[in-house]
Amino acid sequence: MIDDSHPLLSQPRFQPIENWDWSYRELSGIKIRYGLPRTRKAYRAITVIIGGLGDFGEQYFELSQDLDNRGIKPIIIDLPGQGGSGRYLKNPHKRHSAGFDELLRDLSILIDEVALSAAIDMENNHLRLPALMMGHSLGGHLALRYLAEYNKTSRGQTIFSAAALTAPMVRIKIVEKIPKLLRFGLIKLLGLNPTSYVPGGCDWSEQYRERSNLKGIFSQDEERAALQKAFFAHPEYGHLAIGSPTNKWLNDAVKSCKTLTRKNYLEQIKTPVFMGIAGDDQLVSNIAIREVASRIEGCELLEIEGAQHEILMEKDEYRSAFLDRFFTFIDNNVFNSPNDGKIFIQ
C-alpha cells in the first residue's frame, strides 16, 4: 500500500501490482529507474511503458493493473531527468536534456537488457513472448524514433511486435503558434541560456497546474487529474516532483520533431502501430499526428472526441475507448499470429 491513510493514494487502482520492484541502471551518467513485477507468473506478452514529459512511473500503476489482468507483463521506464530517475542539473525541478539521440541510445540499451530478458517464456525458455510498446506524448515521440532506428536485436530479430501511442509529441502546439519566420531565431536565442527555464517556466509547486496556461488541459477526471499533485506533495514521494523544461530540452525536442519529417524516416517502420488522438488536445498538434500516421504502413488511428491530452488519465469513457481498441488491436496483430506471437530466440 502506497499510503493507507491518504484518500487518493490509498485507492486500490493506484497501487502497484503484486511483487512490483523498482530497479536502476546507470547510463550516460544518469540513473534510470524502471519497474516490473518479479514473479513466476506466466504472461502472454510484455509491455514497455514510456510516459510523457514530467511523468513518473507511479501514475501508470492503474494501467499496469489493466495490463496484468490481461496477462501482459508491464515494465515502466522513468525517462532520465524525471520521475524516480536521476536529474541532469542541481535543481531537481528543472527538466533538462542531454540530447534525444543520446536518450534513444540509452533506452535501446535498457530495452535490450531488461525487456528482452523479461520476455523469456517461463514455460519454454527457447521462446520469447511478444513485446509491446506503449508511449504517451514525449514517450510516444521516442517510441516512433525507436521503431524507426532501433527495433532489432543484434541478430536481426524484431524486438517490438506492436506499439500503441497516446497523443504522441510530433509537433508542440506552443511552438507551432510562433510565426515561422521568427521560430528558428527564437529557439536559437533561448538556446544561449540552455539551463534556464523556458519562458514562463518554474519549479513545481502545488499551484503548478493551476496556472492559466496549464489549468484544465490534462484530464477531466478529478481523481486521476489530482494524482500528480498528490504524489509530488507527499513527504515520501516529493523526490518525484518536476517543474518546467529548460531551454535546452525545448531546443532538443524541436530538433527531434524535425527528425520525424525526414524523407523515408517513418516509412521504415513496419511494426503495427495504433495511435490515440485526444480531440481536445492543447499541447501537441493533432494535425501533425494525422500526417505521421499516414506515413506509417497500416497505422491505426483513433480520435477520441472531447478527450484531453492525458488519455490514459482521462475519464473512464475516454480511457476505456482507447484501451478497448488497444486490446482488440493486439489481439488482431499479435496474439492471432502463429504461436500466439511468440518467437524462437536466436
Can you give the mean pLDDT?
Answer: 96
Major sheet strand order: 1-2-4-3-6-7-8-9
List the total number of helices: 10
- Report the major sheet: 8 strands, mixed
Radius of gyration: 19 Å
For the termini, the CA-CA separation is: 40 Å
Q: Give the tally of β-strands.
A: 10
Shape summary:
globular
In what range is the share of β-strand residues? 15-25%
CATH domain class name: Alpha Beta
Identify low-pLDDT runs: none
Q: Write the CATH homologous superfamily.
A: Alpha/Beta hydrolase fold, catalytic domain
Question: Level of helix content?
Answer: 25-40%
Would you identify the CATH architecture? 3-Layer(aba) Sandwich
Write the layout of secondary structure elements.
Blueprint: E1 20-27, E2 30-37, E3 45-50, H1 61-69, E4 72-77, H2 100-118, E5 127-128, E6 131-136, H3 138-149, E7 160-166, H4 173-176, H5 180-190, H6 222-225, H7 227-232, H8 247-259, E8 273-278, H9 286-295, E9 300-304, H10 316-335, E10 343-344
Parallel strand pairs: 3-4, 3-6, 6-7, 7-8, 8-9
Antiparallel strand pairs: 1-2, 2-4, 5-10
Features:
single chain, Rossmann fold, 10 helices, 346 residues, alpha/beta, 8-stranded mixed beta sheet
